[in-house]
Design goal:
Largest sheet: 5 strands, antiparallel
Helix content: 40-55%
CATH architecture of the largest domain: 2-Layer Sandwich
Shape: globular
Strand order of the largest sheet: 2-1-5-4-3
Number of domains: 2
Number of strands: 5
Number of helices: 9
CATH class of the largest domain: Alpha Beta
Structural class: alpha+beta
Amino acid sequence: MNLEQSKEDGGGKGRTSPATAAPRVSVSREALLRDLATVSQTGHMSAGLHLLTRYVGASHFLLARYDLVQEHGLDFVVSSNWPFDLVRRLESEIAATYSRTTELEKCLSVLQPKFGLLPDDADVPDGTSRQYCSLTFSVGRTRFSLMLLFDEDIVLSPERLREVGLLAGYCVSLTNGASQKVDREFDLTEREIECLFWIAEGKTSDEIATILGISRNTINNYITSVMRKTATKTRSEAIAYAVRNNLV
């Protein structure tokens, strides 16, 4: 599974580094819809996912896209506030579990909450249950999985989980429309966006090369291309440009 970056705001993913958990606050359905309508105007996917996570009573979200073409399982992380090391620890296991599922089972699982257990040796945030919940949904021809962590004393509502699955599709569809416009305007490839995200995460070229499984020189070439296209002179300027234009 490649940890790639969608073109959305910097609060979530695409952030897979440690982040502050969503506060445990009771949110009404009416308040949620009102806040989502406000967030939808910005096109920032992670802000919407934070709202949905809080609404269902979870603490951390991870949204990943499935590779339906080559059937390799999860293709890349779109947006997340799971701790980075936890994502790296679980990526192969999550992908393997998906690849063992039949196509009929995948179709029947859409919008059906499923629970799994994190390995005993996986580091989870303090107070967080080792149980996690996953929801599969589709936007057009693309299939996504929303995985939620929650506190040890929390019981998630199946009804709210199904609502969250539907509304997560709404958030993704809005952001995808904004992302396509950004692609046309700034002409950055997915690999360039990917490298830009990891730079924003504070990763070095060597670390990004390890994450993506390509050479350090190739990473530097991508970064040079990003700075050329965005007319920036340093990595910090490129990150600032990307944030202003909702690229990361």
